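Q: What does the assembled structure look like for these inputs?
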Amino acid sequence: MNWTLLINSLLVAGAATLLAATLGLAVALALASARRTGRAGLLALCVAVLALPSFLVTNSWIDLLGTNGALRRWVPLEIFSLPGAVWILALLLWPVSALGIFSTWQKLDAAHLELDPGLRGANLLRFLLLPAAKSALVISAVITFALALNNFAVPAILQVKVFPAEVWVQFNTSLDAAAAFRLSWPLILGPALLIYFLRRESLPWPRESASDIGPQLSRQLGPLWLGVSRAVCALTLGLSLIVPLAQIVFHARTWSEFLPALAAGQSALWHSVFYATTAAVATVGFGALLMRVRGLGWLWIFFLVPGVLLGVGALTAFNHPALFWFSRTSAIVIALLTVRFLALAHALARSAHQALDQNLIDAARVNGAAGFTLFRHAVLPQMAGPLAAAGYVVFVLSLWEVETILLVLPPGGETLAVRIFNLLHYGHNSHVNALCLILLLVALAPLGMFALWRKWR
Amino acid sequence: MRTLEKAAVGPPQPGGLPDSSRGLRSAERDDTPGRPSQWFCILKGCQSSGHADDFWHPFRVRRSPVRRPGVSLRSTPGYFLSALQADATGGIGFAAALLLLAFLITGCSPKTDATATPLRSSIFSHVEIIGARGTGAGQFNKPRSLTCDTNDNLYVADMTGRIQKFSPEGKFLLSWQMPQTDLGKPKGMSCDREGNIVVLEPHYQRVNHFTPDGKLVHQWGVRGTNAGELTLPRAIVVDTKGRVIVSEYTLVDRVQKFTPHGERLLTAWGTPGLASGEFNRAEGVGVDAGDNIYVADSCNHRIQIFSPEGKFLRTHGKAGTGAGEFSYPYDIAVDEQGRQFVCEFGNSRIQVLDRDDKTVEVIGRAGGEPGEFANPWSVALDSKGNLYVADSMNHRVQKLVRKQTPNPKSQIPNKFQSAKFQDAHGVAEGRWILVHWNLKLVWDLEFGIWNFPRA
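A:
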């Protein structure tokens, strides 16, 4: 056992969880006390933070707090350090807590708030909101801890010695898979325990709610708590979303390097799109086929363990001359991405399946619809949206994915994310900004196309 | 200064260590530059008998699915599923679809060849493969730098943090481990005037001079951003007078020129930027016979050329995939004729340009076969003009063997004598000159013709 690595990993994951949970709690308070329209926008921003690739956020903070960083003079934080990793991980992961806690508070109604006239200000927090959110807070914190413990990109770029980064460095140096797995057992055990203990828990997630306690909650919270929560919310969103995006967009050289980066990165761009699209289609396809199958919670292990372990495993298993037709082609990349995100697609497809309107299906059947006709006219319209959303989520995550595919990319199969990761390893430069911008635009392209399609329709 | 023990090494392995495996089926060779890469082949279904329609056919759902025990027809997705699994043909169709998917995706598998493979090139006759993925003797893990010594032995640095030495025939000779690799692995190599191997350690900001058998004889470099100090040096080259040229990246984007053992800074130039004389990650440097300095300005996708004193002379190239365009040029080597061999990390190819910066030819494309590259990182020329390429993501070195040119010595009478010659381009080394009856003629090695010298 490498105790230094273990202590570093626990320190980084623990501190990041603590900070993320605190920020998440404040944002959840701001979400819950917001009006319906503002809340929708805030929720969208929270999800956007969750969807941001970690290398993009790291890139921005290296530029701001790196050796020549713009903020270095005022902020004495060395970004290439454990605190630096904690800071970035907390900024990436606070939405887990925020969304989890908020979804629990959504279940409260006006009657809860009116239970006692004394439920105001700090008392409201202490005697109602926090006890109500306790379970969600614990679950969110555990998930945040697991994600922080197994995050690869942030510590690898910042060259912080924690388990995932060190496993990568060791394997990349010695190609010793057995040693890599020996070193990384905590990274497998942690998610395995998480899945085991949460197997019967329903993960909190915001839903459309009929009741709106926002105005009442904001009144009872009082101006102090309301102001603090909203200020922290604005600051958190600013630091984790606005700052990284603004750093990219408003950097003059980002735009001067945009077209050259695009011209030089055509191959990487198409690889990114090809892998992400194929993986999304395959994952959603398999997720839909398996949506009636129960007991597939263990699939989450592939999502929660560091992707680099999947890469090491795949390389070890398939790097054999007889299997080069698989291991040295795009097939292994698509297969790994599918395996990694299958749990997500399966969960979303299963959720969509459970939400099917059986009355509508029965009505269609009574009217003579059967087989494919029934599927096409009664089921598909209900499931198409959720399945498309699942596909988009997998598409975006596959676009960002680096660690899983880094070791198994076929010759010439470099993706934009991998290129950014490789360039970032040697420090930030504006060229990376341009590449990040291209990647963001690619991620937004399906949404744009969808909007155009709806308008045209 | 420290002395290193030569590391014990395993039994020498054959120089050509390519894996002899072949894919499920071999893709036909097509050496046309700019051939679409693998994924495009997949989209097109190249060389496959399956058309896209054939691919989707097995997924078509029967209109009258058979009810099966255990599958509820209350749920139409279950119905859909049962339709797919309804009978044996459905199952077979599903399996066939999966096989076809794998077939289409993997149809363009790379093939490798254990023997020397002919190369379609006007300069090189064939390509030889040295090494394969691994950490054993003669194997590579992402080779990033290489150089040749005065005896044409090859030295390669890879991600294992060791330097491996190969004979000119590609036979593994010995290796030694860099003493410190915690912060990062060595990257950047050259050969100094004494025949020692110069190895950069970017993360330790220092330059090491090793004897050809791995003994450390000089080490220099001070961390810092001031002139004469080093910050993440990326590339190194030694000019004909033994002076050491180092490029750097991150906090500074510049090139510095030192005395042979780094005792003194001679000149330094460059700042971060896009303009002429500015750099954006200068990943490779080379020198020509006149000691002009060629800088592979990788993130600006261009080559910049400077005089020995660091004065900007010219630049060429822009981002792209066509001839004369570059995608992340990571290294450059210049031969005696002034030809530039640029390895493009992004386009996975080698581009050859003449002394006037015109593209002569493009060698290779992305792939795993001999003559194809996956993110080549470094190039080096030996004295015979053979080009070694660190084919990093294929975890091998490729040796592009120069075509045999008529030996001028065998054709030229004794009356002819060799001399260095100054022509309009400033370089004419290696040419033969006739001094007879007051007649002066030059045998041009490059074009194989006699020519009149220019004053």
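Chain B touches chain A through 78 residues (CB under 8 Å).
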